[in-house]
Amino acid sequence: MTTSAKPWRRGKHSKVRRLPERGAYDRETIEAILDEGFVCHLGFCTDEGPVVLPTGYSRVGDAVYVHGAPANHALRTVGTGLPVCLVVTLVDGLVLARSGFHHSINYRSVVVYGTATEVRDPVEKCAALDAVVEQIVPGRTADARGPSDDELRATRVVRISIDEASAKIRTGGPKEEPEDVEAGGIWAGQLPLTLVPGVPVPDDPLVENLPVPGYVTHYRRPSGDLPARL
Amino acid sequence: MTTSAKPWRRGKHSKVRRLPERGAYDRETIEAILDEGFVCHLGFCTDEGPVVLPTGYSRVGDAVYVHGAPANHALRTVGTGLPVCLVVTLVDGLVLARSGFHHSINYRSVVVYGTATEVRDPVEKCAALDAVVEQIVPGRTADARGPSDDELRATRVVRISIDEASAKIRTGGPKEEPEDVEAGGIWAGQLPLTLVPGVPVPDDPLVENLPVPGYVTHYRRPSGDLPARL
Fold it and tell me: B179 — contact with chain A (CB < 8 Å)?
């Protein structure tokens, strides 16, 4: 994905206030998390209250693209220029402390504040849809048939400008009260969790027995973390 | 977790409008998804715009509990009685169609609409915090030290009533255009993805060499799906 040296604005929205030592604002860290994920949670406000949509996405330069059917009410609403808050969260493990209080989750998350606008230009639309496929399965657009004009018309694409962004990361073992450690007797530590691909299930009505593409058999996210434990 | 036979209200907020065949409103389906997850995305509206918080949670009966530090600005705001939209999303796999257009993700998600209020009663607070630990690591509260009075005071707990809820589920292989199947030559199918636990990392400064608890070595989510592919 495209990378620019300019850091995103660190505004009052995106400043990590709690546990500021877990906050990160550099572009490289933020882009790496946005590029490793492929499902985001997109929040916006309507007259009827808050809405959060879980959806696939792609990050291209300073924007995130989401898409859906033209009749998708939520996407139509958000694409009218609403301010949005978009979050990508990657869960890396569980942290078991000796006290319930210090239990935690190891994670990497990015919060983006931006503005959502509908993409009408067919060239940008096409590029955004290809980018969504590539975000989910890197390498796939070389094989899959691209969108027809009818399919393009049957897809609403929304561009979210990344106006402000911040990352929050927790790694490592439990924080403990010294007296809990001294007392001993309670196992504590981390349990890593990884999203691991299973055995591909071909959809093969013609019994073509095509070979499974390498980007499927060796599926991994951009960080290379996946499938670390296969 | 507690289960009541009464279905949640299927209001205009929570009705699945797009692809209604993927929608589910029965309590058993919704509770199973809420109980299998342990990270939610909590959305609400402030004067400055929408906010989405990724956070651990627990589901107890008709409520979801989240917690944080008393100085956590977002939690303090939401706990004043704001309407919220809370989403739990479980990713089950990738769906590779012959066309980019029909690529998809297999998932189970629940969207909850409710009202957030701060919990001040220490008994409910304690129960909610134990439930959060149990949601993340079932079985853990039997071993971990419970919260002290100081820790209870140092924790803000927010209760989200489940006023409306709906589930959305996609399973199975790709939808295809008949002409794409007839044309042949492009591999299509599913790639299952599972969150799999790795090797526990003990935090053991006293070199106690305590045995790793069974709920860690045999960690699995309530559905039993995890660790299906270890």
Answer: no
